[in-house]
Amino acid sequence: MTVATATLTRQDLELRGFSGFVPFSDLLTAQIPTSGGIYVVVRTGGADPVFLPTSTAGWRKQRDPAMSVEKLTQKWVNNAEVLYIGKADAGTAGGHGLRGRLVQYARHGLGATSHHGGRYIWQLEGANTLLVGWKPTIQPRDAEKALIAEFEALHGVLPFANLKR
C-alpha cells in the first residue's frame, strides 16, 4: 500500500488557492492583487541548476549580493519545485501588498535594492523564467511561517532562497 505524502508542487499550490504563476520577466506588468498575502518562486522541469558567479541583484549597504557557486550548490534542494517563500503585508504604500512586494522583488533582480530576501534566485541561470505565484491571505506572516515549516518537514531544510525562518 502506498501512502500519499504532501507535496509543494505548482499543481499542489494551485489546488491550495495560489494563482498567477507568471515568469519574473512578466511580473512588472502582471495583474497582481494589492492585498497582503504570501508568494512562492517555483522552478519546474527538474533539470540541474546552473549557478552564475555574479548576481544581477542590487547591492545593499555596499555589499555584493552574490554568493559563491559552492555555497549555492550546497544550499540547493534537490527535487523541490519551490525555491522561495515570501510574504507581503497589507497596506496602501507602494511597497506593501502583493503587487508592491513582488514588483520590488522583480526590480531587485534588475539591480534595485528594495527586496533583499530571496536574493539567491538572481544567481540562477534563467532566473527571469522562474514562475511566481501568490495567494492573498489575512495573516501573511502566519501563512508564510506555516508554508516554510511544511517545506522543512518535507525536505529537512529551508527552501533554496530562504535564508531564515
Write the topology of this structure.
Layout: H1 10-15, E1 19-23, E2 37-42, H2 69-75, E3 82-88, H3 97-109, E4 131-136, H4 140-155
Antiparallel strand pairs: 1-4, 2-3, 2-4
What do these coordinates show?
This protein is α+β, with helices and mostly antiparallel strands and 165 residues long. It has one domain (10-155). The chain has helices at residues 10-15, 69-75, 97-109, 140-155; strands at 19-23, 37-42, 82-88, 131-136. Strands 1-4-2-3 form a 4-stranded antiparallel beta sheet, with helices on both faces. It is globular.
Question: In brief, what are we looking at here?
Answer:
This protein is of the alpha+beta class. 25% of the residues lie in helices and 15% in strands.
Q: Give the CA-based shape.
A: globular
The CA-CA distance between the termini, in Å, is 35 Å
Q: Averaging pLDDT over every residue, what do you get?
A: 88
Number of strands: 4
Number of discrete helical segments: 4
Low-confidence stretches: 1-5
Walk across the major sheet and give the strand order.
1-4-2-3
As a percent range, the share of helical residues equals 25-40%
Order of helices and strands: HEEHEHEH
Largest sheet: 4 strands, antiparallel
Radius of gyration: 15 Å
Strand content: 5-15%
Global structural class: alpha+beta
| Oligomeric nature of the chains | single chain
> Could you say how many structural domains there are in total?
1
